[in-house]
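Dear U.,

For the methods section draft, I wanted the exact inputs and outputs in one place so we can describe them consistently. I've listed the two proteins in the order they'll appear in the manuscript figures. Please don't edit the token lines directly; just add comments below if something needs changing.

First protein:
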Amino acid sequence: MLLVLSGIGIFGLATLLLALGWMGVRHLLGRRPRWRRSLWLTLFSLPAHALITVPLTLGFLGSRMVATRRDESAYRGPRFLPDGTWIPQSRASLKEELAAGGVAPSTAPARSIELRAEDGVRLRAFFVPGAAPTRPVDAILVHGLFRGGLELETVGRFVRDLGCDVLMLELRNHGGSERAGASFGPREALDVRAAAAWLDGRPGAGDRRVLVFGVSLGTVAAALAAPHVQRLRWLVLDAPVVNPLATAKRMLARGPKNQRRRFGLPEPFCTLALSSLELWAGIDLDAIRPLDALRQLDPAVRAMVVGAGADDRVTASDVEAAWQAIPCPDAEKSLWIEPDAAHGAVWEKDPDRYRRELERLLQR
């Protein structure tokens, strides 16, 4: 609400200054300034600013400011010790390195690669070969909104230690990937398909199977792309977004009193801002249907669906809906909702179990 009131105040002040300027021009021209009319014009302009100007501005900013959060944007890939141990990185470690003079790039055996999506967008990804003993598995990892490769470090270490080759994908507008129109799912799915195509071009790819992992926004891109990944055998969805419009409203709306939120948009401002975002981005959030894509999966695809009980963006019913939509037999897919974890933080809450669940999935 504070943001909306600030926006109204700014535009109201701008209108008042314009009115005063116009009165000054009339005075210089020798005409009588119409003070009352100008003041009434300013007063009546405030509702227009509240219901039109502010939502349009918020929607424009929301459609153009999709990017990796500032403290993660310096990430330059996984790093390893000489014995092959993956060196964990975090937002705190990046901050310390920046303060000390700069962030070191990825080291062997990781390497940065460039991909091209079907619409020509340039993408950055990091490829890490699996640790011995290796499995014939290629893992594509997809981060969430405003994040990047750094978010994938923990899960990347897990699946690499389990012997999988790892491809950590940075979606368009994030990390080192090119800026392009954000669609919050459909266009980002092209990025996942580009990652799968790159893996398909590797020698011996036909003898290997693919695992696709997504968290938060990454689950939308992963779900929409999954039916088109030819060698897909396993799918992992963490904090699955099954209704992007409803999730976006929860993100923008005022949170419960016991949760710390920087700001919240009450109705009708929330709906107006999202409608404006759809207008600027050229998308329809309600038409993005991850569940429909999941229902198209081959029943041979095994799955793991993870949720968090303290998640204020993705509800437990959303997590269960994603699990139910996957057509493989119930015995071949797992559902785990960690009661006290926050959005996209289950692997931080219980990393040991997370690794065990991934291993159990790969053994199916």
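Second protein (the one for the lower panel):
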Amino acid sequence: MDKRKLYVLWTTGDPVTSQFMIMMYATYSKTKRWWDEVCIIIWGASAKLVSEDENIKQCVKNAMQAGVEFSACIACATQLGVVDKLKEIGIEVKPWGEPLSDIIKEDEGLITI
């Protein structure tokens, strides 16, 4: 059986949705083995939220401990001035435009919130 990877494109700056949908589903997806791999792509408002909200930052750390991968769009993080803050948490920061396009073209598992 092929390994299945889920990507979650996290664009919302809403802390309730971030905690109770994105972090909850991603963490359970790993711990309950609904997906082999889970990668959350931080894009836009979510980059600012993660860098400023201590509760969300802790949710990210908990998800990381469960095996969820995190990566942030460098263009957004740079424009919002949060690159260093994201890296301090252990989040990879890289260009995501082309990889995201490939994920969509290859019809991989993708949730956008």
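Candidate sentences for the figure legend, describing the second protein: The beta strands are 5-10, 37-42, 69-73, 92-94, 109-112. The two ends are 28 Å apart (CA to CA).

Thanks,
Y.
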